[in-house]
Amino acid sequence: MLLVLFGARQWHRRPKDPSQGRLPKWMAAMDRLTPVKVFGLGLGLALALALAALNAKTAPLTIAAAASIGSAGLPVGQEITSPAIFVLIATLGLLAPLGVYMVEGERAKTTLGDWKDWPAQHNVAVMAVLFFVIGLKLLGDGIGILTS
Question: Which residues contact 69 (CB under 8 A, 6 or more apart)?
């Protein structure tokens, strides 16, 4: 329920003009990372868990994923690969730009600049919708458990 309320609050606080949007601090810091450092960030399971613990925005999603995987009653092989797949999907935001840079080299600056401008302009709206949807999903799951 708190995520739904937080999402609604974020939506009402978003800039009316998308050009006034700002990058989150963690995303702005990406400009200072070398490709080797980005690759290391993208592959580190420990980093993914640390970011989830430190970032209140991703912690609910990570906790929900861990709970879903843990309670699914999967065979051991799937129980081991499921978190690895989750981490891979979660790190695509880091790995995709690295791949573009590795393939295009200096020509990637235009593409990556465009990729960076869009979330800067729409970050608050995207996060508000994300919180709202995840909040509704978790609320629905909770109601489903209580009624069964």
Answer: 79, 82, 83, 86
* Selection from 13, 139, 125 nearest residue 64 by Cα: 139
The DSSP code for 112 is: H
Long-range CB contact pairs, 136-141, < 8 A, 24+: 136/4, 138/3, 138/60, 138/64, 139/1, 139/4
Residue found by looking up tokens 């995709």 in the block: 96
Nearest to 116 by CA among 22, 38, 35: 22
| DSSP per residue, 119-134 | HHHHHHHHHHHHHHHH
**Which helix (H) or strand (E) covers residue 14, if one does?**
none
Per-residue confidence (pLDDT) for residue 31, from 0 to 100: 73
CB atoms within 10 A of CB 106: 7
Stated length of the chain:
148
Each residue of 79-111: pLDDT tens digit?
888 888 888 887 887 788 888 988 998 888 888
Distance CA 127, CA 80 (A): 30
CA-based nearest residue to 60, from 144, 147, 141: 141
The half-sphere exposure of 32 on its side-chain side, counting CA atoms within 13 A, is 5
Check whether 40 has a pLDDT greater than 70. yes
